Amino acid sequence: MATAFASWPVGQNCHPECQIAIINQVDLEIYASYMYVSMACYFDRGDVALKHFNVFFLQQAKKVVDHAEYLLGLQSKHAGNIPMCNIPRPEEEHWESGLKVLESALHLAKSVHQSLLSLHQVATEKHGRVCPFVECEYLHEQVMFIQELGHHITNLRKVGTPEDSLAESLFEKLTLGDSKN
């Protein structure tokens, strides 16, 4: 996680729209973390028991929390007050299959990416520059995660029918099992 808070002036020199965009991004990141933990818990259940899926989503939850903490640090260091909102419960807690979880994760990742693009646009318009962390690291990382999810969805569909638990188990062991989990 990047820690150079001084690289982007926030606060007195920050346009209010930029501050709102940062807080909106933080809220979305925290919600995404909540969703990824919910997904991980689904795969940790005894009747599902797919540990590599579980680890995959726990790692993603940690990454988005790190992003939220970085943005909160920017806001806190330079603007002081951080208005927080209530984070809603995950809409889905009883996932039907690994494919449904991956599809939901892809939809969520695309929402996070769109929000990042909005933050990038507001920062560019109001400051004439953007936060290097968002521009250089975070946008690229989010695009890579979206591509990874897309590949996982494609591969899971190729292995067998989406409702086939044997297909899920094979996918989990052959694809997620060989990653850095």
Structure description:
There is one protein chain. With 181 residues, the protein is mainly α. The chain has five helices and no strands. Helix 1 (16-44) packs antiparallel against helix 2, helix 1 (16-44) packs antiparallel against helix 3 (98-127) and helix 3 packs antiparallel against helix 4. The longest helix has 30 residues, at 98-127. It is elongated, with a radius of gyration of 18 Å. It starts with 15 loop residues before the first helix and ends in a 5-residue tail after the last helix.
Write the topology of this structure:
Layout: H1 16-44, H2 51-79, H3 98-127, H4 132-159, H5 165-176
Short summary of the structure?
The chain has 181 residues and is mostly helical. The chain has helices spanning 16-44, 51-79, 98-127, 132-159, 165-176. The two termini are 19 Å apart.
Unreliable runs, pLDDT <50, ≥5 residues? 1-11
> How many helix segments?
5
What is the β-strand count? 0
- Termini gap: 19 Å
Summarize the helix and strand pattern as letters. Answer: HHHHH
What number is the mean pLDDT? Answer: 79
- Main beta sheet: strand number and arrangement? none
Give the percentage of residues in beta strands: under 5%
Share of helix among residues? over 70%
Output the radius of gyration: 18 Å
Structural class: mainly alpha
State the shape.
Answer: elongated
Search tags:
disordered N terminus; 181 residues; mainly alpha
